Amino acid sequence: MRDYGDDDDAEAFAEGIDQQLAAVREWWQTPGPPPAFRQVPPPELKTRDDVEDFLREQDVRELRGRALVLFVTGHGIPGKSDTHFLQLPASVEQRPLATAVRTSDIIAAALDSHVDNVLVIVNTCFAGSMHAELAALQKDIRRSRRHRCNLDVLVTCGHDSKIQVLRFPTLLRGALLRLRRNAGITTPYLSVPDFMAEYARGLREDEERTFKLQRVFDGGNYQPSPCLPNPGYVHLPEVLGATQRHEPLAAEYWLDRATGRAQETDQGWYFRGREQLNRAVASFLGSHSPRGVLLITGCAGSGKSAVLARAVTLSDPVFRKEPLYKTAQDSAPRDTLPPEGSVTAAVLARHLDAAQVAADLLRALGERPAAVSATGDPVDVWSRQIQDYVRSCRQTVTIVLDGLDEAAEQARILGDVLAPLAPFCRPLVPGQRQDEDTSAAPAVRLLIGVRSSRPDGNSPGGAAVDELGLLRTLRDTFPAACMERTDGDSSKHDIAEYVTALIGDAMDADTRRQVVPAVVKAVWPSFIDARLAGDQLRSTKDPMELALSEGWHTKLERGIRGLLQHDLQQVQQVQGLPPEVALALLQAAAYAKGQGVPWGEVWPTIAGVFLMPKRLSADEWDPMIEKLLSGRLSGYLAHAVEDDRRVYRPAHEELVDVLLDPDAGLLDFGVRDA
C-alpha cells in the first residue's frame, strides 16, 4: 500500500515504498539454482475488496510449489484486541474492522497454501503486536502441514514501534552487499537465522530493539531455505563433473593445483613437463592395473599436489570437453593422460581429522555419511561404510588423497580409514583361482600425496631421510606400494618449462632463455617459489629490469620469504594497500585454525591484533581485504569451505611458518629491487 493521498508525507512515503520494492526485487531476482522466482508486480490496493481480489486472482490460497515469499508493506494499525490491521488508502481509522484488513488474514492465505516453504515479511508499524494473533492462527493450520513444511513470518519492528519508511530498504541493501562481499556463505540459499543476522549487522546499537527482524511465526528449521536465495552464492561453471557435483569448492582446489595458475581468475594452463612422472600415474590409472597403491612424494613445494590434481582433472570427462583446457590434452603425450573416469573420488586431507576425511571421502563417492549414535565412533562407522561401498559397487574404486602429511590425525587416517582398504589394493596373484569373476571382485587403487625429505645421497639406494616417518608407515601398511618422487634432478627442467609458460609474452624468447636458468637455480626444487617468481616477472612493468636486479635475485635465493617480501614492497604503489596491513591480513590467515579464516568480522579482528599498535576503523578493513584478494598477494592464499563459510588460508604450510616467524623481517625492505 503506497498511495495515502490525505497524509502530509504521502509523496515521501510512496517514494519509500518504491525503494522497498526495488530492494526486494533485487534480492529475489538473484541468479542461482533453478527454478527462479516469478515476481508478481505489486497491485494497486485501495480497498478491502482490492486485497481479496488480488489474493483470489493470484490464487495464493491454492498455490503449489517449492517456495513462496510474500512481502507486505504500508501503514499498520494496532487493534485494541491484539489484532493488527493493514491500513488501506480508503480505510477509516476509527472503523478498522469494516474498512481495513486484518494482516493475519493475508498471512494466513500464504501459510495455509500448498507451498512447501513460505516466508512472509511484514514491514509496517506495530507489526510485532501480531505475536498472540499468529500463535492462535497456528493452531488452525493443519497439523500435517505444520510438521512437514517450513512456515516463517518476520516483522520489522516491535508491538509499539513505528517504522521509518527508508530503513528497511537501507538495511536490506546493506545485507545484500555484505553477502556479496564479505559474509562468505557458500550455500545457494540462506537459513532464516542467517538472513536475520546479516540484516541486523546494519543496525546501530540504539536501533537493535526497534528495527531488528523478529520471527513471530517460527518454522523451526535452521537449514537453508529455498525462500531465501543467497546473493553471494557463486555458481561454479561445470568444469569438473563428479568432483563438482559432490564438493564444488574442492573442485576449485584441484583446478588451481592442476593449472599452476597464479591467480584464481586466471584461465590459463601452465602445467609443464614431468612427463615420466605423469606417465607413471597414467599407467597406474589404466585398465590393466585395477588394484594397487602409488605414493607421490617429495620435499615441500615440489609439485606433489599438482601431479595429483592433473590426474584428477584430466580424468574427468566433463573437464576434458572444456574448450578452455583442450590444449592441456592436445599438447601432452597420449600415454601421460589418465583414462577418462579413472578417478572415482578425490579428497584433500589438510587440517582434517580422521572423521572428516572419512566423511569427505563418502561424499566424494556420492554417498551420504551414515547417522552415528551418541556413543558410536564416526570413524569406525564411516570406514565400514566405505568398505561396504567398495564391496558393492562392482568396479574399481580409485581414491586420490592429497595432503596426508598436513592432516590433523595422520596415524588414525592411515590406520582406521586407509589400512582397512589394503586387502582390496593387493594385486591379484597370476594364476590364482577365483571363485567368481575377478572383474567383479572388490578392487581399490590409492593414489596418495605425502611429503618427505629429499633423498640423502649417502643413504643406501638414495633413501629419504625421514623413512621412519609417515612415508615409512605408509610403505609398511602397503608393502606392494610403488613410489614416485617429485624432487629429482629432472625437475629442474620441469621448473624451467613452468616458469617459461608463466612469463609468456611478457618477455621475448631470447630474453626468457637468459632469465629462466637463473630463476630455476634460485628456486629449485620449489614449484611454489617458481610460480611466485614467474608471476612477478610477467606482472611487472619492466620484466627485464626486474630480472636483472641484484636485489630481486637476492630475494629469490631466500625462497618464499624473499618473494613475499618483494610483493609486500610493491603492494602500496600498485594497489594502494599499506604493506603492514597486507602482512597483518596474511598473518591472521596463517594464525587461524581449521581450514582458514572467514572474512566477516573475524578476519579484521584477528588482523587488528597483528597490526598493533596501528589501528584501522571497522569500516576500513573490508576495502583492504578486497584489495588483498583482487591483487597479486591473493596468490599467497588458498580458500576452502568450513561450516558453509568461505575461508582463506596460506597456500602452503611453508608460508605459514614464514608468516608466523617473528624474526622474518618481511617489512625490512632496505634497497628497492628495481
Summarize the helices and strands and which ones pair or pack.
Blueprint: H1 10-28, H2 48-57, E1 64-73, E2 75-78, E3 84-87, H3 96-99, E4 101-102, H4 103-111, E5 114-123, H5 131-140, H6 143-148, E6 150-155, H7 167-181, H8 192-200, H9 208-211, E7 214-217, H10 242-246, H11 248-259, H12 275-284, E8 292-298, H13 304-314, H14 317-320, H15 326-330, E9 345-348, H16 354-364, H17 378-392, E10 397-402, H18 410-418, H19 422-425, E11 444-451, H20 470-477, E12 482-485, H21 491-503, H22 509-523, H23 527-539, H24 543-547, H25 550-557, H26 560-575, H27 579-591, E13 597-598, H28 602-611, H29 618-630, E14 637-642, E15 645-650, H30 653-659
Parallel strand pairs: 1-5, 5-6, 8-11, 8-12, 9-10, 10-11
Antiparallel strand pairs: 2-3, 3-4, 6-7, 13-15, 14-15
Helix pairs in contact: 1-7, 7-8, 11-13, 16-17, 16-18, 18-20, 21-22, 21-23, 23-26, 25-26, 26-27, 27-28, 27-30
What does this structure look like?
The longest helix has 19 residues, at 10-28. This protein starts with 9 loop residues before the first helix and ends in a 15-residue tail after the last helix. Strand 14 (637-642) and strand 15 (645-650) form a beta hairpin. With 674 residues, it is α/β, with parallel strands linked by helices. The protein has 30 helices and 15 strands. Strands 9-10-11-8-12 form a five-stranded parallel β-sheet. Helix 7 packs across helix 8, helix 16 (354-364) packs parallel to helix 17 (378-392) and helix 18 (410-418) runs parallel beside helix 20.
